[in-house]
Amino acid sequence: MGNTMNQGNDNTRDKASSLEIQDGQVLIGTYGTLMRGRSNHERFCSGYLDVQRVEIPGVLRWLSPTILMLYVHKGLILAMGTEDPFADVATQAGWFARFEAEGQPYQDGPNEAPQGHVRVVAGEVLGFDDPEARLPSIDRLEGFKPGVASLYSRVLLPVRLADSQVMPAWAYVAFQIR
After folding, report:
1. From CA 128, how far away is CA 73, in angstroms rounded?
2. Pairing verdict, β 176-177 and 67-73
3. How far is Cα 166 from Cα 156, in angstroms, rounded to an integer?
4. Which helix (H) or strand (E) holds 80?
5. What CATH architecture does domain 6-177 belong to?
6. Each residue's pLDDT tens digit, 120-174
7. What is the pTM of this model?
8. In angstroms, how far is CA 143 from the centroid of its own chain?
């Protein structure tokens, strides 16, 4: 898996380049409090290796005044998160390989958003080299419990970089739009 992403800390400037993904690295797509400068970023996302602005397919809705939910079409979900961070990294790597072999998937897909709602959400993808610590930590924050009904689900989605490259990243989402 090769391409380029910004390396550094929260002062890193975004470039319109591709991502550099190393073996064992997990990518997490963020659209709310985990983004740089937001309330949960420092506690849960400091120490990221790479960052890139992305478009995440879906519709944002407020579940309550403090809970923002991303709803996605079930046809866009590449995989569901599990209790095994290394298995999830392997799943993500498999989708990277598939994208490279078969070409980029059509990201906008059948994401039938209700009128007046955004169909693509601006966000960031953050790369980490510690999936065994990072995924369980963020899973707890988001209330995601694999195999159990949870407020959020962690799913693998195709996200689009500024250079139009599409790649798989884990994101925390609500129920799927039909």
Report:
1. 26
2. parallel
3. 12
4. strand 79-80
5. Roll (3.10)
6. 899 999 999 999 999 999 999 889 998 888 889 999 999 998 888 889 999 999 8
7. 0.81
8. 16
